[in-house]
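Components:
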Amino acid sequence: MSLYRFQTNDVLVNTVKLYPSIHFTIYSGSAYYNNAPNVSGAFANPVRLANAGEVSLYELNIDRSASSTGRMIGDAPDTGLIYPWLVKNGTRLGFRTTSDSVWNSEDYGALITSSYPLVSSISKEFWSSTDPRFDQNPVYVSSNNTTGSVSHILALKSTIDSYQYSNPSFIYSSSARSFDSIDLGLLSIPTAFYGSQISKGTIDLRFYVTGTLVGRAQDTNRDGSIYETYGTNSGSLIGLALYNEGFLILTASHVLSPIQDNYVGGAPSDNPKWIYFAQSISGSITAPSSSFVMQMSGTTTTQTLTMNATAPKGQLNQSNNPTFTQYSTAVFAASGSKTYLENNKMRIKNVVSSSYHDPTGSFEKTTYISKVGVYDKNKNLIGIAKVATPVRKTVERDFTFKIKLDL
Amino acid sequence: MATSFKTFDDNSTAITRNLLHEAIPITGSIVSGTYADLNIKNFSHGMFQSVYDYPFLSSSANHIFDLTAGYPANSHLASAGNTQNAKKINIYNEMAQVLVGYDSAGAIREFDEDGDFAAVGTKNKEAYFINFSRLLTKDEIKKGSFTLELGATQAYATPFTDRITLKDTNAASIYKINSPAGEYGILYVSNSAGVPLDGITGSTQQAAGLIYYQAGIAVVSGSVFDSLLSSSVQMNPAGEGVDAILTGSAISGNCDALRHRVRNISFNNTVELNSTIYYCRVNNTDFNYSSNPTYLSSSKLVVKNNSQDLPVSYMTTVGLYSPDNELLAVAKLSEPLKKDPSTEFTLRVRLDY
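Structure:
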């Protein structure tokens, strides 16, 4: 084994930018992510305890169901499921799923538990033109604090307006229209699906009624505006995309098909419109005649360490592998109580290809490189790269092995 | 963007360490039976067996532990005629090298029943090894929480009528540190259902294995199926005992036999969460002004209604800077905090790593 030091240009770090595909099919109260079906297991349905449209953090609790076993696992009850817990102490550490009031009401030393799986999923909200965007009757508590809330669309007001420099359509409220007073749909896509940014120009929304495509919309200009590319009003602006934040704001209310469906709970049936896109994500609204497909690409960046390990000409032609020498060659020439003399006449096995059983052709020093070890500056082995098949190395050949490591 | 900096004094930072745990139950039906062994992976090298929590061809499956078995070369079971004799010796030696280490003469130590190498104690020579996945053990298994329940009925077909439990009883305060692989505890055997044990009634009367907390490896003595019981159990459908399968069956066959008798495994894992807490003290005269471009309009503060009002600002973000004024971290408030000269705040910023 020989050690070589990487030279300045042999090691480089670069960033690989990837665009993972995101495909959602939405129908009758369910969403399906990248065409994954709901699979039932022997004990749990669905087997991941997460629906097909959800991603599961850690993906623990596969095919498990909660049941009271009556047992204890150390200090924690055995519920049949894997779950995290900690002890309430002075560090004030708790889980996000535990509210402040619950945390405060526990005694110090008490177990605070959470649960798995923690899931992430897309969601759709709809506001009619008359629905308030904020709590109109907040309760006054103190000078700095009132109860009440604003809607998600109103919370995005500053964000929407901040993109006005690149596209004039990004304005929350103008003389032409206000997001406070029009029918509006908001699709929220968590970063777990798209990474750092929705890739511009990849958004593709398709609206099906009774299995027939009635509308298609894309961000063809890559500027956040989503235009209808197929449908009754092709070419019109139907909404806005916040690429960095993962929101689609749907504003178009023109009719896409004469076939009506029930898109809003408690309201009469209505014609298909872009504001109703993906309304049936939640179980309460089924809209049985309508189905939706949403496609886009995310953006992820992965830092990659590339190392070029060179096997130079005239080197790495010796192996300590026992099969490198001829069978029955003695390892030592002589040994005694005070002597160990290695055999300096060990014969190297000639492996040069020949037409004959035992080659008598010209000998050539040959090794087969099967692994490249990567060592740190203290010569600790920190990584091993294996080649798919051993590489034949002769005296006149040189190789450079390109080793990549995702960071 | 920050417009003024305050330097932390000695009383403004605190370092804390917190332990986060997960309760891990593994029922025996997952290990043996439910999936008709589609969640069991055997390898051509035959040296260990991998167990998954779901059929391993599914992308949902998680690797939960590996099983293997072995004995040392000086075991009374060792014989060149045994099935996979060399591999069983190699497995035992490999595990012993890593978990027990070497003695002063350079020889590999054997697993000691009570972990006391100074005394000539009983050695666990014939052992089963359960190597838990890092996914389950995380930083380490919580001391005192490990339980392994095994079926101890003699008949192979009905293994769980009588049961025994291996626990690291009292290990929360009494554990061993003389292993190169970290801390370990003694697994004591006790009756769980029925009275299958031979004269063992105390909870810490008889050691029958070891549990290595950081390595996540349980070492189970083969005697739990044999000499510790009133009646030795049948480890396979042919009715063979534990010695017979350790000599006559491959390692995979031994793993199958162990899985058949696993009723339940449970433990808590531990993740050590280190945090630094920065107390950002905002005094009454601090941060009442902003350089935000929207703060001023026509050279007047937009957040003031008349000129007699106190200066006021809204804090949204805390930036943590290095001594060289490089921005290292940003903490965001859930909602802007109103600040004027009549108020003081201490913002508690926690940085986990």
